[in-house]
């Protein structure tokens, strides 16, 4: 079998123009794979091969967490202890059998190593509320604490005991990849004991033995790599059955034109397409299949209002003038409701998203388990906008007028569309209403956003758990708090209650109540979500499932 595979691999490496065989996949991308150390990888084309070679206890299947190397799990009543039943007869790529000691070591290692920019660091922040291994943290973060936190019991189950209930725990669990302990220790990695614990705490392992010779349980195993290619082959011993596509090449091709041509010729099965204009040119090509409206995962687009703008050019709170706005302009709920009613979502989808946007009714991602399709978001209606403006600031705003600053961002066509919609509708509503438009470089725009200097802004936010999304967007303790300055104790209490309640079934109605309240307060306007576009050879099957799972094993020809 190996003798048959090697010539095929070499042929694919040597000749990028060679048409792909039926059992092979060539995926042309725009950047090279850097590190495939699973605790470090966060960049898209590092994560992609990692997900093929390594597996976690659970799989994030488009917002639904499905058992993978675990078969099931149980959660204690207080939400602090999770017990995982592990899948049996799972083989690593080196032929060894996965056991609980491997899962225990893998989870402990993820909670120990990894630089501040690593995936492991993000996992620690979520599970342990550790933002970094500061000297203070190191005083209490000991091997004894880690080993009591993660351990195998006498029944061969993996038991995780945390200091608090973590609602988004499965999101982190799905990203903790199981690796073979003996192979790593033999290669000079952490021993799994206290003796070298201090040497590995927070260590950057991007160039670890595992990064050089990846060994996981995934459907694909590592073959070779060079600066422009990463080569995988199907793992015959895979517990889920060998994948249909036996050979995979991730091929770095800088030129957009070259990738498109390779796709048309059949030299690539999937090619990164730079924009929808290029995608449109591929429609009708017999050898190519075009995807225009695939859903996105764990992302939400919103328009946020700032209730206390940090701009000394604005008027003091409560003062009105036709040529300016007060710093607390959006603290008035009638102003927020009026602006929400002035936003024409159909025009935004047509002009900004080229017709490919998914309507939203909450600030949660459309694939989020807590999203509720029955809720009513703010709707475009200029009569409603007029009525709300006449109530704003005790009825004075309509008579006095205002001039609101609108910012567009360099390189962001969507921000230009948003500003254009608002300027047109604001100035059509009342001759004393004005909008001034200015452009910021993206880095300056981000600094202004987090510095609280923008009146309002459209942005994309992410996170798998509803608490991650909503707390980040609206809470006074969230990362975007300086950009919104929302002070609402009732909302904070509702948010905390929903977070601290154990179990999705119990949390879901609490989030419905919370999102109903958020929509009524109009702290944000949910924007239509941009849809994913892609192009593959017409013979490739299962791309819709790949878009949801990111796994090559769901593809075939």
Automatic annotation (TrEMBL):
GO CC, one annotated term: periplasmic space
Any one GO biological process: peptide transport
Swiss-Prot/TrEMBL keywords: Signal
Residue stretches making up the Solute-binding protein family domain: 64-477
Pfam families: SBP_bac_5
Signal peptide: 1-19
GO molecular function: peptide transmembrane transporter activity
InterPro entries recorded: Peptide/Ni-bd, SBP_5, SBP_5_dom
Superkingdom to which the source organism belongs: Bacteria
UniProt xrefs under PANTHER family: ABC TRANSPORTER, PERIPLASMIC OLIGO-PEPTIDE BINDING PROTEIN, PUTATIVE-RELATED (PTHR30290:SF34), PERIPLASMIC BINDING COMPONENT OF ABC TRANSPORTER (PTHR30290)
Name assigned to this protein: Dipeptide-binding ABC transporter, periplasmic substrate-binding component
Lineage per the UniProt record: Bacteria, Thermotogati, Deinococcota, Deinococci, Deinococcales
